[in-house]
Amino acid sequence: MTLWSAPEAAAATGGAATVDWSATGVSIDTRTLRPGDLFVALKAARDGHEFVAQALEKGAAAALVSRVPEGVAEDAPLLIVDDVLGGLEALGSAARARTRARVVAITGSVGKTSTKEMLRAVLSDQGRTHASVASYNNHWGVPLTLARMPEDTEYAVIEIGMSNPGEIAPLAKMARPHVAMITTVAAAHLEAFESIEGIAVEKASILDGLEHGGTAVLNNDCSTAAILQAKAHDVKRRDIGFGEHGFDFKLKSVDLQRDTTVVLAEAHEAPLLFKIGAVGRHYAMNGLGALAAAEALGADLALAAQSLGRWSPYEGRGAREVIALDAVEADMTLELIDDSYNANPTSMAAALSVLAAAEVTHDIGRVSKGRRIAFLGDMKELGPDGPAMHAELARLESMEAIDKLHCIGPLMKHLHAALPVEKQGLWTETSEDMAAQVPRRLDSGDVVLVKGSLSMKLARVVDAIRKMGHPVDKGEDPQK
């Protein structure tokens, strides 16, 4: 199905099409480009114009450019605009204007990607749903997500992030959501903000994009909840609160089971029971907020709660998998919790509480006692208080149940020094150095968490753990 025709794209961007063409998708990367995509020649580490010829060879329908690239024929299928990023933004705005979809935008210091995926899952069961890919939530990710949205979309889920002040409001105004959700406000990106209150003000600016009659879904449990509520009042939008102190969606109890979180809540004072295919109190909060947002969009709450029970996190975001360590002895396994994509003090505390609650298995490995083990990398962008924030992790209540912590990076050296000697594992400068040590540090029966900021490349540690054996398929019983 055609997503953009040459005349439509030219009208949206004010550009000029060299020939007639039609595109079925939009791409910014030749490595993932599909035949029929409109290739957008953005300038990042390298100028996208360098890859236009390659994109056309791979079957791109056309390329969005600001000039005819070297080595590309004058009559090649191009859409020439003054500025490529501006052209992408214009496409995104036009896609949003032509659809009748109900749109939800999500931001927050922690949990926005997981919550976005929860909403994708529950809304997909109730209508044609379009959502951000991965964490495409920045100045090019939001317009790209919008530009990819089919006209007949019924629900759209747009993730909006930030690193510096003033980034969220323009993206929210582009997305024009009917519902805007703030998962929580926590100490993240403190290098760019003077305080957590400053972060709250920036997060709250997502409400500037709300459509007339729109709804704000706000975390009532975070310390800056009053700032979020005041913003909703200022922009004259209805707000729905969720959490233990939620006004409308109230969290009553959370039961953490082996691989499931069971949540008892109230929605407008009526009982609401749901489960999530992942373990963690933070998943309960995100799920409750997702259900509040789904209802605010007009979705059926009971059906949404059922759908949520089939959701589970994906790789790098808290996904759990069993690794078989022996090809013959089926019970020789360990459990991996892969949360290696990102980290800040709040999400780190949540992940460590999940590890602390995990069930280990005794008497199946070289070490008779199953252990809870963490590989933790630096949490970046915390400013001058970063070293102290790392050291303070040692005082978390969950640390009591964790047997050994291996630390990676100069900031995590502060946690390593603050740990009791019996809990101190290795400290290395890089994930590559730690990955080489992994096989000697783990055994059957262990549960192991890997978490840190993306730039720390803890995926290398995750890969090293997987290479100790092979992942057990979800349908496979390691005991049979």
From TrEMBL:
Annotated Mur ligase N-terminal catalytic domain residues: 24-70
Cellular compartments per GO CC: cytoplasm
UniProt domain Mur ligase C-terminal: residue ranges: 334-453
Enzyme Commission identifier(s): 6.3.2.10
Superkingdom in the source lineage: Bacteria
GO molecular function, one term: UDP-N-acetylmuramoylalanyl-D-glutamyl-2,6-diaminopimelate-D-alanyl-D-alanine ligase activity
Every Mur ligase central domain range: 106-294
Keywords tagged on the record: ATP-binding, Cell cycle, Cell division, Cell shape, Cell wall biogenesis/degradation, Cytoplasm, Ligase, Nucleotide-binding, Peptidoglycan synthesis
Binding site for ATP: 108-114
Biological pathway: Cell wall biogenesis; peptidoglycan biosynthesis
InterPro entries: Mur-like_cat_sf, Mur_ligase_C, Mur_ligase_C_dom_sf, Mur_ligase_cen, Mur_ligase_N, MurCDEF_CellWall_CoF430Synth, MurE/MurF_N, UDP-N-AcMur_synth
Enzyme kind, highest EC tier: ligase
Location in the cell: Cytoplasm
Catalytic activity from the UniProt record: D-alanyl-D-alanine + UDP-N-acetyl-alpha-D-muramoyl-L-alanyl-gamma-D-glutamyl-meso-2,6-diaminopimelate + ATP = UDP-N-acetyl-alpha-D-muramoyl-L-alanyl-gamma-D-glutamyl-meso-2,6-diaminopimeloyl-D-alanyl-D-alanine + ADP + phosphate + H(+)
A GO BP entry: cell wall organization
A Pfam short name: Mur_ligase
Similarity comment text for this entry: Belongs to the MurCDEF family. MurF subfamily.
Job of this protein: Involved in cell wall formation. Catalyzes the final step in the synthesis of UDP-N-acetylmuramoyl-pentapeptide, the precursor of murein.
Family annotation (PANTHER family): UDP-N-ACETYLMURAMOYL-TRIPEPTIDE--D-ALANYL-D-ALANINE LIGASE
Protein name: UDP-N-acetylmuramoyl-tripeptide--D-alanyl-D-alanine ligase
Source organism per UniProt: Tateyamaria omphalii
